[in-house]
Design a protein that fits this description.
Strand order of the largest sheet of chain B: 1-2
Strand content of chain B: 5-15%
Shape of chain B: globular
Order of helices and strands of chain B: HHHHHEEHHEHHEHH
Structural class of chain B: mainly alpha
Distance between the termini of chain A: 121 Å
Number of strands of chain A: 9
Helix content of chain A: 40-55%
Oligomer: heterodimer
Number of helices of chain A: 13
Largest interface: A-B, 64 and 62 residues
Order of helices and strands of chain A: HHHHHHEEHEHEHHEEEHEHEH
């Protein structure tokens, strides 16, 4: 019995060491050196062809059975006309905007219709859940028509499952574990290329367009936020200083390790509330031209990558150069959005590692500075509009915090004021006339 | 996204809703997907909080009244109460009021009036005013709705005179209230079909 053990260990050690050697040769070394794009693009093209075929099969099968296939509402459920202003709608037409308007019982129709439209399809709540896809990508989590699958599709899906959980997932988990251990080990020794360790975390296909505007020292880099992986993607191209709260546990260890190799700004829980302290530390860091640029996500929370929501003005008040970055993920290969109310970080990472791939496009935009007479909020909106335009995202004024919090009453009061303005001018005059007339009669 | 439909919509249910509301098959499945995404409690019904979570509805001055319109009434002894949950059928029935009126529907079923007829659209709007469901809009009820729409920007006296003038113009039988027929008469020149319709995509 004891004699068999060493031979088993020996027997197992050969495949394990072979596995690690292959890993090093084909994945880690090219990843560190930043090469190897052709294999990835071949892989992605093949996947796309398979997805199209799968969707076609489902549609054909649905036609055979004479049933309806669920069609995603990527174009919206309703056709919203260009938002007519309150004034236009109530006064009837644009030409008589200057004519007086009296209260009409029909005025409620406008509010009524807009209200029901927002119940059917609103701009905000759909940003906090994953985007729906046009064609099926062989993941159960994005399939709505599973009763239309036939034998061949099931086989394909089974094969995909095997590939993803049998090959891709263990591979990526190994990489992640190796990466994190290597990183922790190296940073305890000396501040040594944290970049390389980051790029090992998962198979990320990156398409870096417009490299010429890469952020320089002494500025702040802002980007739209979809997932914690954003940080890894940007950090694999150049070093940034991160800003955030100090955590406990594994994340805390990583944070402390990071500080040893490059200057990051971590706050204690108590310090976070003090906005002046935060602003001071940021501006001190930025003033020192030898330090790396700070990476900030002004939205404050993860959004599902179809839109850019309100930018918090804090980082725009400091007055340094802003380097905007637009990040857009391709949802066909795996959804990168982290829905923190649905799953925790570990589950999210596991589902990321068992997707086909994470494909994203990163655009570095030309640096922007605050102009004369522009306040922080206007500057923030200008930067947001530039990022949204470049990334092909919808530019929204709504706050990402609406994911969890209630909307500010100021918006409602604004609408009420607008409606009152259209009433008061005419009615007030009439009242004055009537009161004058009645007074003159007595 | 993925966990929508803790139960899927059955074909028979879709057919029934189609007959009752006139929506097409794909519209019903899409609206069901929307219904489930609003249903955070995942129990197949929507509560008032689920509606209030929509920011664009929360800032609408008439938001609360619109939400009320979705919740069906019930009777308990002699008291009218509002149920706290609305299921998908009720949701669709209310939304059906906002379907545009199509010409080919006009003569389909002369016995029952479709939910999106001009009269039913006007009834929907009338019920936004008439909170106690006595089929009359009193001065107080009118004032309440006016106050919701203007907020704090107009004084009580001015609002009162606006309400008085409106009732004066509409009231034909002299009871200082606006009945449903008087309401219809006042709005006969208004393009209700266009103002109270939402274009649902196919």
């Amino acid at each position: 019995m004891l004699n068999i053990m060493p031979s088993i260990v020996l027997g197992l050690s050969i495949p394990i060491s072979a596995w690690f050697t292959l890993l090093c040769l084909f994945i880690i070394v090219p990843a560190v050196l930043g090469g190897c794009f052709s294999i990835r693009s071949l892989y992605l093209r093949t996947l796309l062809k398979i997805f199209e075929w799968a969707t076609l099969r489902m549609e054909m099968r649905a036609k055979e059975k004479n049933q309806q296939l669920y069609k995603t509402h990527t174009n919206g459920i309703i056709a919203k006309e260009s938002p007519a202003s309150l004034q236009q709608e109530i006064r009837g037409s644009a030409s008589c905007l200057c004519s007086d308007h009296e209260f009409d019982m029909a005025d409620i129709f406008y509010f009524c219709r807009r209200g029901v439209e927002s119940i059917v399809d609103d701009e905000v709540t759909k940003r906090f859940s994953a985007q729906e896809l046009e064609s099926w990508n062989l993941l159960t989590r994005s399939n709505y028509n599973f009763h239309h699958i036939n034998m061949r599709l099931t086989l394909l899906w089974g094969l995909g499952l095997l590939t993803r959980y049998g090959i891709l997932l263990p591979l990526r988990v190994t990489l992640a574990v190796t990466g994190i251990s290597l990183f922790l080990f190296l940073t305890t020794l000396v501040g040594f290329l944290p970049n390389a360790a980051f790029s090992l975390f998962c198979t990320v296909s990156m398409c870096l367009i417009c490299r010429e505007n890469k952020p320089k020292n002494g500025g702040i880099c802002v980007a739209n936020h979809t997932t914690p992986i954003d940080v890894i993607i940007l950090a694999s191209d150049r070093c940034y200083s991160l800003v955030g709260q100090m955590h406990r546990g594994l994340l805390g260890m990583i944070q402390r390790g990071m500080v040893k190799s490059s200057p990051h700004i971590w706050f204690d829980r108590s310090e976070v509330k003090d906005r002046h302290l935060v602003a001071k530390r940021l501006s001190d860091h930025v003033a020192d031209k030898t330090k790396q640029p700070i990476l900030i996500f002004p939205e404050g929370t993860c959004i599902n990558n179809t839109s850019v929501m309100m930018f918090k003005k804090g980082s725009f008040e400091i007055g340094c150069t802003i380097y905007p970055v637009a990040i857009k993920y391709d949802p066909r290969f795996g959804d990168a959005f982290w829905n923190s109310s649905k799953c925790g970080l570990v589950w999210y990472l596991l589902s990321m590692m068992s997707s086909w791939a994470i494909v994203c496009s990163v655009w570095y935009l030309p640096p922007m500075n605050r102009e004369e007479g522009e306040d922080a909020v206007q500057f923030a909106n200008r930067v947001k509009a530039a990022i949204a335009a470049r990334g092909g995202l919808v530019d929204l004024i709504w706050d990402g915090g609406l994911k969890r919090a209630k909307v500010n009453n100021a918006f409602k009061e604004g609408l009420q004021k607008l409606y009152s303005k259209s009433l008061i001018s005419s009615s007030f005059l009439i009242l004055i006339l009537i009161s004058n007339f009645s007074r003159s009669c007595t | 996204m993925g966990s929508r439909a803790s139960r899927l919509l059955r074909e028979e249910e879709i057919e029934e809703i189609k007959k009752e509301t006139g929506f097409s098959h794909s519209q019903i499945t899409r609206l069901y997907s929307r219904f489930t995404s609003l249903d955070k409690g995942e129990n197949g019904t929507l509560s008032r909080e689920d509606f209030q979570r929509i920011p664009e509805l929360a800032i609408n001055p008439l938001g609360d009244r619109i939400i009320n319109a979705f919740f069906p009434e019930g009777y308990f002894v002699l008291v009218i109460f509002r149920e706290d949950q609305v299921n998908f059928r009720g949701f669709m029935r209310t939304l059906a009021h906002f379907r545009p009126i199509e010409d080919n529907e006009k003569n389909k079923n002369p016995a029952t009036e479709p939910l999106n007829s001009r009269t039913n659209k006007l009834l929907f709007a009338f019920r936004l005013y008439d909170l106690d469901r006595d089929d009359k809009i009193s001065r107080d009820e009118l004032l309440q709705v006016l106050r919701m729409m203007v907020g704090v920007n107009i004084s009580d006296e001015q609002l009162g005179s606006i309400a008085d003038r409106t009732i004066q113009e509409a009231d034909t039988n002299g009871d200082s209230c606006i009945s449903f027929n008087e309401f219809i008469k006042v709005l006969e020149k208004v393009d209700v079909e266009q103002k109270m319709s939402i274009r649902f995509l196919h």
